[in-house]
Amino acid sequence: MKPYSMRELDDQIYTPAKGKIPMESLRASDDASKAVQQTPHRVSLDSMLAKIVSEEIIHPTSIPHMTIAVLITENGFCLIGKAAPADPDNYSEELGIKFAKEDAIRQMWPLEAYLLRERLSL
User: Fold this and answer.
1) Cβ neighbours of residue 91 under 8 Å, at least 6 residues apart?
2) What is the DSSP secondary structure assignment for residue 7, as one 8-state letter?
3) Using one digit for the tens of pLDDT, what is the confidence trace for 90-115?
4) Which of 43, 66, 93, 118 could form a disulfide with 112 if both were Cys (CB 3.0 to 4.6 A apart)?
5) Which of 60, 82, 61 lies closest to 71 in space, CA to CA?
6) Among candidates 1, 2, 3, 6, which has minimal Cα distance to 102?
7) How many CB atoms lie within 10 A of CB 75?
8) 118 CB contacts (<8 Å, ≥6 apart)?
9) pTM above 0.70?
């Protein structure tokens, strides 16, 4: 699978089978944070998505109902998200990709918050 830029994806996640699907839960979290924001200092979903330059989706042959998303940021840092249903019969490729990407993006939030806090403390 050829990596592509998530900058083009805006508020959606791409899946080969279904095209773009929304990232409702990530956008809802971001909107809730924005609603209580009192300073210009905040890690936003848009700022994080802008830093992701490529991705790879992996379906391990030993666990075909598992989806792994590998996201690479501008500085080369790798985020790995995963998703798998408890019952393999409930597997959906579309949801697996969506949940794995969301898992990887959620891992970025505390890293970006730490970086922002470092900048604010200088």
Assistant:
1) 64, 65, 84, 85
2) G
3) 999 999 999 999 999 999 999 999 99
4) 43
5) 82
6) 6
7) 7
8) none
9) yes
Instruction: Report the domain count for the chain.
Output: 1
CA distances for 97 relative to 52, 59, 92, angstroms: 16, 10, 9
Look at the alpha carbons of 58, 29, 110, 35 in this order and tell me if their dihedral is positive or negative. positive
Domain that holds residue 43: 6-121
Distance of CA 68 to the CA centre of its chain: 11
Residue 20 is predicted with a pLDDT of 56
The 3-state DSSP class for residue 119 equals helix
Residue 1 maps to a domain: no
pLDDT, one tens digit per residue, over 24-82 is 888 888 888 888 988 889 999 989 999 999 999 999 999 999 999 999 999 999 999 99
Which tokens in the block code for residue 97? 């990709």
Residue 92 DSSP SS3: coil
pLDDT classification of 17: cutoffs 50, 70, 90: very low
What span, in angstroms and rounded, lies between the C-alpha atoms of 80 and 42? 23
